[in-house]
Amino acid sequence: MKKNNKVNNNRILNDSDINQASFRWLWGSQLGWNYERMMAPVFLYSIMPALKKIYKDDEEGLKKSLETHSQFFNTEPDMGHLIVGAALAIEEQEKSEGLDVVAGLKNGLMGPFAGVGDTIFGVIFPTIFGAIAANMAVNGSYVGVVLWLAYNIVRLFMRKYLFKLGYNQGALIVTKFKDKLNYFTEAATVLGLTVIGALIPSVVRVSIPLEFVAGDVVMKFQDVLNQIMPCLGHVLLAVLCYWLLGRKNMTSTKLILFVMVMSIILFNLGVLI
Description:
By secondary structure, this protein is mainly α.
């Protein structure tokens, strides 16, 4: 007989309860912040109806559960679906006896999943699809808008899938899914770097009009750069911006203002066009 790896064999919650918890986390994960316990209020809000059903005849167990889920919690919202689903599955199965496991699961996964989620859903995917969509929009194509909307719609459905995955796998998510995420993160990072590298020549605009004149010989500085490597100026500017972002006290807002001011100054000096 095939072994069942799911934790939640004795179900108390139905699909409607699971979907309700997923929906609450989907729309509320960024709405209930506080500086003391971060996302803990929303975590509790998301599963509160399910907890009332699990502890229907156990007021003391419900109290312990509320205290457990009121503790500090913070992670990336998309990846949070996995943790909320897994925690709910364990508590449905073990009730108050599994609260130590639930607390350990939340504390153990919120950090690593935040790093993975911020990298994939906060940087790589928005950068890839946003850059492609923006480039299309700049060129007058409405496909860019459709692409960006499609990405966000797919992301919403994927978050629901992640919740179901966490609920179905329960505690096994700690060992079974964590290794796969590492491979996926590495692959997504390589893809993101490739796409950004390909977009640099078409998105970044750098042209140096300086010329060296000796008699009848005119040597354009931009032609020299192009002979070394096409779009070398574009690449150097992108590398400079990337390097500046790594400096202390440098933010993306400061970098944008710096690039704007320097562009105006260099354009008026005739160094860049």
